[in-house]
Amino acid sequence: MYPEWLSIGDVSVLLIMAALYVIFRYGMAMRIDILTLFPGMFQGPLTESILKRAVDQKLLEIHFHDLRESGMGNYHQIDDSPYGGGVGMIMRVDVLVEAIEAVSGKLKVESGKLPHKIYFSPRGKKLKQGMVEKIAKKHDWLILLCGHYEGIDQRVIDGGWIDEEISIGDYVLTGGELPAMVLIDAVARQIPGVLGKEESSKEESFSKALGRRKEYPHYTRPEEFRGLRVPDVLLSGNHGEIEKWRRGQLG
Ligand code: 21W
Predict the structure, then answer these.
(1) Domain map of the chain by residue range?
(2) Which CATH class is domain 28-188?
(3) pTM: predicted TM-score of the whole model, two decimal places
(4) Long-range contacts for 52-58 (Cβ within 8 Å, ≥24 apart)?
(5) CATH fold of 197-249
(6) Cβ < 6 Å from ligand 1: which residues?
(7) Which of 81, 91, 119, 120 to mutate to test ligand 1, by most ligand atoms within 8 A of the CB atom?
(8) How far does the centroid of ligand 1 lie from the alpha carbon of residue 172, in Å?
(9) Strand-pair partners of 119
(10) 171-202, pLDDT tens digit by residue?
(11) Tens of pLDDT along 29-40?
């Protein structure tokens, strides 16, 4: 099966193939540490469907850090009123920096890796698919800081403890937890192996054929429902015509 001049035994070949498989399969895995006051908000999405499968397969490794446990004093205070006055409470710089350093220090020492630190805020750069793909490609360790209340002390950002500030859109939420979950979902599906072979190769061919815009209308059985028919072209079996029709339907 293998040429003689390779001069390695069958066992060596198997071992090398196994090693390559492990490197390919788990080398692309992503570790995400989440700093939040509300770890419970993440439980639903991470324990269902594709994200659950990614976690089970160890392609996605998520660690929660309850910011309340990093709080100051007996009351574990994590926020305070804003200098200059105004509504709401601000998360304290000392609490946040110690929490970030505790998390990034641990694994950095163990593995020499550096985390990419993201803070979710309405002031951040609006998340786009290109940013998602870049994050998934460039980093295998993310620290996500979720603000709550009015936000965090600006010195956390100005002092260099945050690499990227992200918003998910122009609407007002109650905190950074749902935005963090949105990023996790979008990044996870970029990790090789998270989508099934079929799902990801379909993606690729759709993207190629339709110039990355693949949002045309979909239909499945039955052919007719309460007088509503599936477009004839989709039943024709003519793939050239089908692709042309879909192209004309792109948003
Ligand atoms: C919303 C915090 C509004 C602060 C002056 C004083 C993270 C978010 C969030 C939140 C305000 C993202 C005000 C899209 C979002 C987030 C909580 C400001 C008004 N102005 N992406 N007070 N939308 N939101 N409050 O809300 O933390 S990413």
Answers:
(1) 28-188, 197-249
(2) alpha beta
(3) 0.90
(4) 53/194, 54/188, 54/191, 54/194, 57/193, 57/194, 58/26, 58/29
(5) Trp Operon Repressor; Chain A (1.10.1270)
(6) 86-87, 120-122, 147, 150-151, 167-169, 171-176, 179
(7) 120
(8) 6
(9) 145, 165
(10) 999 999 999 999 999 999 999 999 988 788 66
(11) 999 999 999 999
